[in-house]
Design a protein that fits this description.
Shape: globular
Strand order of the largest sheet: 2-1-3-4-5-6
Number of helices: 19
Structural class: alpha/beta
Largest sheet: 6 strands, mixed
Radius of gyration: 30 Å
Helix content: 25-40%
């Protein structure tokens, strides 16, 4: 029998860890420590039984077993790759974490996580991931896409990976990851080795069955429903099915069923939605009354308070968050129900990505995921050079040079407005003296925007110097190219009088040599000469240089080797140097009461 889990958790979310050797148990303890709310350990002597139990009971499995042994043990219970939990095997030497089952359904990601905890190397054999190509069986999954038929996935995927021409057909442009370079909407049908289609239509187009065809249904439709009290689910469901079929629309593209609030407990509507696997969205009558529809009803207005239920509910639910929507099917009636279908227009997606200070291991995992997700990446040429190996095949790169920030921001927004999945990259954090603010100046509500936090140059430099930001601090850019020096000077005086630790960005360039000494002089009016000052050039990069000195030394020529790649931190009056490290005390009185967390 399997052992009981070390942590309490829902079984479907647990990671079952099989460890039958002493070394395996020790490694399992490391996983348990890293993921205390996720791991359930199985440590019985019968490895095969333990593995099958974990496979049946947990959402994922990590086995400290040979791959061959794991495969033989699991072979009798394997089912469908979409339903089976991912399985990762780790060798006895803890050198490799092999994604055995699940691949891009969680196995590859789990292998990377396990490898990260144990210091092993993840082994990924999934063809699409190994080739840095988008996996077709989960293509668009984060947008809610469903695959009409999984049988053609393999031949279409093979055509993509081999570089053969694949024709793309879209009813609408969705912010999807890139496909291999051979996939194009310009590929003529007669020369295509395969076809990939994104549509909410159920009708097959003539001639497209001559080549392997994968059809994705996006969640672009909303069904609006109204009914008399007590209307049967069979009548309501039949009306919906007929409306979709006559319009040639795919039920798989329905994202939700919408109705008015007074019908929130209508059994027929709820059961019709449940039978089709749809969520129900309930909208207030007053909100629906604001929606213009082609077929209003005075009778409905008098009874419910809105001239339309089906059409208005479909349009309002499809047009949520300011999205454009239109009626795909006008109101249809049965004896006791009405139904309409609205189609929403997808929006492009702009991810504002900070790459961190330079070292790859200081780039956030979410930033890496956004780079994989983007079909267009926009950025400074030298930053793009740092991440080209992380981009999927087929990603379009738009590079520009120093001083072209506005052009980059406008380009990224324009690409997103065309419907693409765009990543606008920069160093550090995108929101700190970087590309987020200019991009958001140009971005309207016609695109979705995602921000990805990054480690700033200031934070990276601070950790290299010690703990200079341990108490209140201020960031000030000394570049007067876009900010008048008078405004910068006012901020310097305010920070000096407020006794903040100050972090200077853009401290000195060949054309701007006087601003840093002047800034230091202003701070020196309110600081003792031995105030710690630290500066770091190229923080977290191979040629990093960090210096801890004093305000007096900096004022006497110590700032000569500071440039635009340098971050300068000047302490408050409480800052000090301890064992060569720059420290700003937190300023609290440490005692037992202060250390108690309520």
């Amino acid at each position: 029998m399997p052992s009981t889990g070390k942590a309490q958790m829902s079984e479907s979310g647990a990671i079952g860890v099989i460890a039958v050797t002493e070394r395996g148990r020790s490694a399992a303890d490391r996983l348990q420590s890293a993921w205390p709310d996720r791991v359930r350990t199985f440590t019985g002597e019968r490895a095969g039984e333990e593995l099958r139990s974990a496979f049946a009971e947990c959402g994922a499995v990590v086995a400290f077993l040979a791959v061959g042994a794991a495969v033989r043990a699991l072979a009798p219970v394997l089912g469908d790759k979409h339903a089976d939990p991912p399985v990762v095997c780790v060798d006895e030497a803890l050198q490799h974490a092999v994604a055995v089952l699940g691949g891009h359904h969680g196995g590859n990601a789990l292998a990377a996580e396990v490898a990260g905890v144990l210091g092993a190397a993840p082994v990924i054999t999934t063809a699409s991931d190994a080739a840095s190509a988008a996996p077709l069986d989960s293509y668009g999954a984060d947008l809610g896409f469903t695959v009409a038929d999984t049988a053609p996935l393999a031949p279409v995927g093979a055509a993509l990976l081999s570089g053969r021409p694949v024709r793309l057909e879209y009813d609408q442009v969705w912010p999807l990851p890139p496909l291999a370079p051979g996939a194009s909407a310009q590929t003529p049908p007669e020369s295509a080795a395969a076809l990939l289609r994104v549509t909410d239509c159920a009708v097959q187009r003539s001639g497209d069955q001559q080549v392997p065809t994968v059809t994705y249904h996006p969640p672009s439709l909303v069904v609006g429903v109204g009914s008399a009290r007590g209307a049967a689910a069979e009548e309501i469901g039949g009306l919906i099915d007929t409306a979709l079929a006559e319009a040639g629309l795919a039920p798989q593209s329905v994202r939700t069923l919408a109705t008015v609030d007074v019908k929130a407990d209508e059994e027929g509507i709820l059961r019709a939605a449940e039978e089709r696997g749809w969520q129900v969205r309930v909208l207030p009558a007053a909100e629906l009354a604001e929606v213009e529809v082609p077929n209003p009803s005075d009778v409905v207005r008098a009874e419910i308070g809105t001239p339309s239920v089906a059409e208005a509910a479909a349009l309002r639910a499809a047009g949520q968050d300011g999205r454009r929507a239109e009626l795909a099917v006008a109101k249809r009636k049965s004896a006791n129900a009405t139904a309409a279908v609205a189609r929403l227009h997808p929006r492009g997606r702009l991810a504002l990505v900070g790459l961190g200070p330079g070292a790859r291991d200081l780039t956030a995992p979410r930033a890496l995921a956004e780079l994989h997700r983007a079909s267009v990446v926009v950025g400074l040429d030298q930053y793009l050079d740092q991440v080209r190996d992380l981009l999927r095949r087929g990603t379009r790169v738009v590079a520009s040079g120093l001083g072209q920030e506005e052009e980059r921001a406008r380009t990224a927004v324009a690409e997103a407005q065309q419907g693409a999945a765009v990543a606008l990259i920069g160093s550090g954090d995108a929101g700190v003296y970087a590309m987020a603010s200019p991009a958001l100046d140009f971005a309207g509500d016609d695109i979705d925007v995602v921000g990805v936090p990054g480690i700033t140059a200031a934070v990276a430099a601070a950790h290299r110097l010690g703990a200079p930001l341990g108490h209140d601090h201020a960031y000030i850019s000394l570049s007067n190219l876009h900010t008048p020096w008078e405004a910068i000077e006012r901020r310097l005086h305010a920070a000096a009088e407020g006794d903040f630790t100050v972090c200077f960005y853009n401290p000195r360039s060949r054309r701007r040599a006087w601003q840093l000494p002047e800034a230091l002089r202003i701070l020196g009016e309110h600081r003792p000469p031995d105030t710690p000052v630290g500066y770091v050039r190229n923080a977290a990069r191979d040629d990093e240089r960090a210096v801890v000195t004093t305000l007096e030394a900096m004022l006497n020529g110590g700032a000569e080797d500071v440039d635009m790649y340098t971050v300068v931190l000047v302490g408050s009056s409480a800052s000090r140097t301890v064992a060569g490290r720059f420290v700003t005390p937190r300023g609290y009185t440490w005692n037992s009461a202060a250390e108690t967390v309520p």
